[in-house]
């Protein structure tokens, strides 16, 4: 089943269940990231504290659909004017995955997986050349001045359905700035300043927020309690907001995001 934007908008009032996947925070491997195993890198990219997953179970309300085409015993003209009620019997489960993309452990895990997917028999010289090509991914120049997050989704019972692609593929920065923002527990905010929409189903949507305010102060420090990531306009989409315990993001006395 394929879902269009109009259908998703109509689902907000009938969201049945919201389940947050909760995992214990795993310690980072103590060895250099270039020695991480595939499972160690994947654990960082799929579990808290730098990755949060929310499952939204959506049930369809009865909706009126204009019938088109010919039916046995019904003329085309009559069928075109007919209306039928369509009710889905099976709720659709969407898993939304949020990654704190600017966090160094996330960037290291992405680079490490690329290394493991390349020729494992590379010489030291070849490895050095490969690492030079991945330097941009690891250093992420945009991350120096911005908090960067990515959002993706998939359906567990309707393969091919992608709510993030449907909702954000045509997203405009000016529209998203009305309701997409970061905030801390004191109500201080960072406005969305750049947005990269997903190009195809399965792609991530990427959001950029400035680290510093007009006084040069960051949104988050080790003294902060909570990070709020607001992605919801209750009038147009069913995506939940995310709340993260800032203390779980602290590494070596610094908030790693």
Q: How would the blueprint of this fold be written?
A:
Blueprint: H1 5-9, E1 15-20, H2 38-46, E2 51-58, E3 63-66, H3 76-81, E4 83-86, E5 92-99, H4 104-117, H5 124-133, H6 135-139, E6 146-155, H7 163-168, H8 173-176, E7 181-184, E8 189-191, E9 194-196, E10 205-210, E11 226-230, E12 242-245, E13 250-251, E14 254-255
Antiparallel strand pairs: 1-2, 2-5, 3-4, 5-6, 6-10, 7-8, 7-11, 9-10, 11-12, 13-14
Poorly predicted segments: 1-26, 60-87
- List the strand order in the largest sheet: 1-2-5-6-10-9
What is the string of helix and strand elements? HEHEEHEEHHHEHHEEEEEEEE
Question: Roughly what is the average pLDDT, rounded to an integer?
Answer: 78
What is the radius of gyration computed over CA atoms, rounded to a whole number of angstroms? 22 Å
Strand-pairing-aware structural class: alpha+beta
Task: Write up what this structure looks like.
The protein is an alpha+beta fold and 257 residues long. The protein has helices at residues 5-9, 38-46, 76-81, 104-117, 124-133, 135-139, 163-168, 173-176, and strands at residues 15-20, 51-58, 63-66, 83-86, 92-99, 146-155, 181-184, 189-191, 194-196, 205-210, 226-230, 242-245, 250-251, 254-255. Strands 1-2-5-6-10-9 form a 6-stranded antiparallel β-sheet. Strand 13 and strand 14 (254-255) form a beta hairpin. The protein is globular and about 55 Å long. Residues 1-26 and 60-87 have low confidence and may be disordered.
């Amino acid at each position: 089943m394929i879902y269009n934007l109009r259908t998703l908008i109509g689902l907000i009032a009938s969201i049945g269940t919201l389940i947050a996947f909760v995992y214990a925070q795993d310690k980072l491997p103590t060895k250099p990231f270039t020695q991480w195993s595939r499972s160690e890198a994947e654990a960082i990219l799929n579990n808290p504290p730098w990755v949060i997953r929310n499952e939204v179970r959506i049930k369809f309300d009865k909706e009126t659909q204009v019938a088109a085409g010919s039916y046995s015993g019904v003329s085309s003209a009559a069928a075109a004017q007919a209306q039928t009620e369509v009710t889905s019997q099976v709720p659709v489960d969407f898993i939304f995955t949020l990654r704190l993309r600017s966090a160094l452990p996330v960037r290291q895990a992405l680079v490490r997986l690329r290394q493991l997917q390349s020729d494992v028999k590379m010489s030291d010289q070849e490895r050095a050349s490969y690492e030079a090509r991945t330097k941009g991914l690891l250093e992420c120049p945009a991350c120096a001045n911005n908090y960067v997050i990515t959002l993706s989704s998939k359906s567990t019972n309707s393969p091919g359905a992608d709510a993030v692609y449907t909702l954000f593929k045509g997203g405009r920065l000016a529209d998203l700035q009305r309701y997409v923002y970061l905030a801390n527990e004191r109500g201080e905010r960072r406005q969305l300043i750049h947005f990269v929409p997903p190009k195809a189903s399965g792609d991530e949507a990427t959001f950029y927020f400035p680290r510093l305010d007009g006084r040069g102060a960051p949104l988050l420090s080790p003294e902060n309690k909570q990070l709020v990531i607001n992605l919801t306009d209750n009038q147009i989409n069913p995506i939940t907001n995310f709340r993260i315990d800032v203390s779980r993001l602290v590494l070596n006395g610094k908030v790693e995001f």
